[in-house]
Amino acid sequence: MVVEIREATDADLPGIAAIWNPIIRDSVATFTTAEKSIDDLRAWRAERLANDHPILVARDAEGITGFAVYFQFRGGPGYAHTMELTIHLAKRARGQGTGRALMAALEEVARARGVHSLWGGCSGENPGAVAFHERCGFTRVATLPQVGRKYGRWFDLVLVQKILA
Protein backbone atom coordinates (compact mmCIF):
# COMPACT_ATOMS: atom_id res chain seq x y z
CA MET A 1 0.00 0.00 0.00
CA VAL A 2 1.44 3.35 -1.08
CA VAL A 3 1.30 6.04 1.59
CA GLU A 4 3.04 8.76 -0.39
CA ILE A 5 5.01 9.49 -3.53
CA ARG A 6 7.45 12.37 -3.39
CA GLU A 7 10.85 13.54 -4.60
CA ALA A 8 13.74 11.63 -3.08
CA THR A 9 16.08 13.20 -0.56
CA ASP A 10 19.52 12.04 0.52
CA ALA A 11 17.83 10.35 3.48
CA ASP A 12 16.06 8.03 1.00
CA LEU A 13 19.27 6.77 -0.61
CA PRO A 14 19.74 3.76 1.72
CA GLY A 15 16.18 2.68 0.88
CA ILE A 16 16.88 3.04 -2.84
CA ALA A 17 20.09 1.02 -2.45
CA ALA A 18 18.20 -1.69 -0.56
CA ILE A 19 15.85 -2.06 -3.54
CA TRP A 20 18.29 -1.55 -6.40
CA ASN A 21 21.31 -3.59 -5.26
CA PRO A 22 19.54 -6.97 -5.02
CA ILE A 23 18.03 -6.32 -8.47
CA ILE A 24 21.51 -5.53 -9.83
CA ARG A 25 23.06 -8.54 -8.10
CA ASP A 26 20.38 -11.18 -8.58
CA SER A 27 18.41 -10.44 -11.75
CA VAL A 28 18.50 -9.41 -15.38
CA ALA A 29 15.94 -6.65 -14.81
CA THR A 30 18.97 -4.41 -15.33
CA PHE A 31 22.16 -5.20 -17.18
CA THR A 32 24.11 -3.09 -14.69
CA THR A 33 26.54 -5.24 -12.71
CA ALA A 34 28.03 -2.75 -10.24
CA GLU A 35 26.07 -2.32 -7.03
CA LYS A 36 25.41 1.24 -5.86
CA SER A 37 27.04 2.68 -2.76
CA ILE A 38 25.44 5.56 -0.92
CA ASP A 39 28.16 7.84 -2.35
CA ASP A 40 27.33 6.58 -5.87
CA LEU A 41 23.66 7.30 -5.27
CA ARG A 42 24.38 10.73 -3.81
CA ALA A 43 26.30 11.64 -7.00
CA TRP A 44 23.56 10.08 -9.16
CA ARG A 45 20.90 12.12 -7.36
CA ALA A 46 22.92 15.33 -7.67
CA GLU A 47 23.33 14.76 -11.42
CA ARG A 48 19.60 14.10 -11.83
CA LEU A 49 18.74 17.28 -9.94
CA ALA A 50 21.27 19.35 -11.93
CA ASN A 51 19.45 18.21 -15.09
CA ASP A 52 15.97 18.85 -13.60
CA HIS A 53 15.23 15.10 -13.61
CA PRO A 54 13.91 14.36 -10.12
CA ILE A 55 13.94 10.92 -8.54
CA LEU A 56 10.57 9.91 -7.13
CA VAL A 57 10.16 7.49 -4.26
CA ALA A 58 7.12 5.61 -3.02
CA ARG A 59 6.83 5.02 0.72
CA ASP A 60 4.63 3.04 3.01
CA ALA A 61 4.70 2.76 6.80
CA GLU A 62 7.79 0.52 6.61
CA GLY A 63 9.87 2.76 4.34
CA ILE A 64 10.81 3.12 0.67
CA THR A 65 8.91 0.69 -1.56
CA GLY A 66 10.06 1.88 -4.98
CA PHE A 67 11.69 4.58 -7.01
CA ALA A 68 11.35 6.04 -10.49
CA VAL A 69 13.51 8.43 -12.48
CA TYR A 70 14.01 9.56 -16.04
CA PHE A 71 17.04 10.86 -17.91
CA GLN A 72 17.73 12.05 -21.43
CA PHE A 73 17.38 9.18 -23.90
CA ARG A 74 20.43 10.19 -25.95
CA GLY A 75 22.83 13.11 -25.79
CA GLY A 76 22.40 16.31 -27.72
CA PRO A 77 19.77 19.03 -27.97
CA GLY A 78 17.65 17.14 -30.52
CA TYR A 79 16.76 14.62 -27.80
CA ALA A 80 16.04 17.15 -25.05
CA HIS A 81 12.35 16.17 -24.87
CA THR A 82 12.83 12.39 -25.05
CA MET A 83 13.59 10.59 -21.81
CA GLU A 84 14.34 7.04 -20.73
CA LEU A 85 12.91 5.88 -17.44
CA THR A 86 13.94 3.50 -14.70
CA ILE A 87 11.48 2.15 -12.18
CA HIS A 88 12.18 -0.48 -9.53
CA LEU A 89 10.12 -1.80 -6.65
CA ALA A 90 10.83 -3.63 -3.42
CA LYS A 91 9.58 -7.21 -3.53
CA ARG A 92 6.91 -6.45 -0.92
CA ALA A 93 5.46 -3.69 -3.14
CA ARG A 94 5.06 -5.70 -6.35
CA GLY A 95 1.48 -6.30 -7.42
CA GLN A 96 0.17 -3.69 -4.97
CA GLY A 97 -0.30 -0.74 -7.35
CA THR A 98 2.96 0.93 -6.35
CA GLY A 99 4.46 0.67 -9.83
CA ARG A 100 1.42 2.21 -11.49
CA ALA A 101 1.31 5.01 -8.91
CA LEU A 102 5.01 5.77 -9.43
CA MET A 103 4.61 5.67 -13.22
CA ALA A 104 1.63 8.05 -13.11
CA ALA A 105 3.56 10.46 -10.87
CA LEU A 106 6.65 10.25 -13.09
CA GLU A 107 4.57 10.97 -16.20
CA GLU A 108 2.98 13.97 -14.48
CA VAL A 109 6.40 15.38 -13.55
CA ALA A 110 7.71 14.70 -17.07
CA ARG A 111 4.76 16.43 -18.76
CA ALA A 112 5.17 19.46 -16.48
CA ARG A 113 8.80 19.69 -17.60
CA GLY A 114 8.01 19.48 -21.31
CA VAL A 115 8.91 15.83 -21.93
CA HIS A 116 7.29 14.60 -25.13
CA SER A 117 8.29 10.93 -25.18
CA LEU A 118 9.18 8.40 -22.48
CA TRP A 119 11.10 5.22 -23.29
CA GLY A 120 11.74 2.10 -21.28
CA GLY A 121 14.26 -0.63 -21.94
CA CYS A 122 13.21 -4.03 -20.59
CA SER A 123 15.23 -7.20 -20.55
CA GLY A 124 13.83 -9.74 -22.98
CA GLU A 125 13.91 -12.20 -20.08
CA ASN A 126 11.66 -9.93 -18.01
CA PRO A 127 8.27 -10.19 -19.75
CA GLY A 128 6.60 -8.89 -16.60
CA ALA A 129 8.34 -5.53 -17.08
CA VAL A 130 7.18 -5.33 -20.70
CA ALA A 131 3.61 -6.22 -19.67
CA PHE A 132 3.72 -3.61 -16.88
CA HIS A 133 4.72 -0.87 -19.31
CA GLU A 134 2.04 -1.96 -21.78
CA ARG A 135 -0.59 -1.78 -19.00
CA CYS A 136 0.64 1.78 -18.36
CA GLY A 137 0.01 2.74 -21.99
CA PHE A 138 3.45 2.11 -23.48
CA THR A 139 3.83 0.49 -26.90
CA ARG A 140 6.46 -2.09 -27.72
CA VAL A 141 8.47 -0.55 -30.55
CA ALA A 142 11.56 -2.71 -30.96
CA THR A 143 13.55 -5.68 -29.77
CA LEU A 144 17.30 -5.27 -29.94
CA PRO A 145 18.77 -8.78 -30.06
CA GLN A 146 21.70 -9.66 -27.82
CA VAL A 147 22.66 -6.12 -26.79
CA GLY A 148 22.92 -6.70 -23.03
CA ARG A 149 25.42 -8.99 -21.37
CA LYS A 150 25.31 -10.29 -17.82
CA TYR A 151 26.23 -13.56 -16.10
CA GLY A 152 28.24 -14.54 -19.19
CA ARG A 153 25.12 -14.52 -21.41
CA TRP A 154 23.61 -12.22 -24.02
CA PHE A 155 20.15 -10.74 -23.54
CA ASP A 156 17.69 -8.99 -25.81
CA LEU A 157 16.44 -5.51 -24.93
CA VAL A 158 12.77 -4.69 -25.55
CA LEU A 159 12.11 -0.99 -26.10
CA VAL A 160 8.76 0.49 -25.15
CA GLN A 161 7.58 4.06 -25.71
CA LYS A 162 4.81 6.37 -24.62
CA ILE A 163 4.09 9.75 -26.22
CA LEU A 164 3.05 12.11 -23.43
CA ALA A 165 1.79 15.05 -25.52
From TrEMBL:
GO molecular function per UniProt: phosphinothricin N-acetyltransferase activity
Pfam families: Acetyltransf_1
Coiled coil: none
InterPro entries: Acyl_CoA_acyltransferase (IPR016181), GNAT_dom (IPR000182)
Keyword Ion transport included in the entry's annotation: no
Keywords tagged on the record: Acyltransferase, Transferase
EC primary class: transferase
Record-listed E.C. numbers: 2.3.1.183
Keyword rRNA-binding: no
Residue intervals of the N-acetyltransferase domain: 3-164
Protein name: Phosphinothricin acetyltransferase
PANTHER family: N-ACETYLTRANSFERASE, UPF0039 PROTEIN C11D3.02C
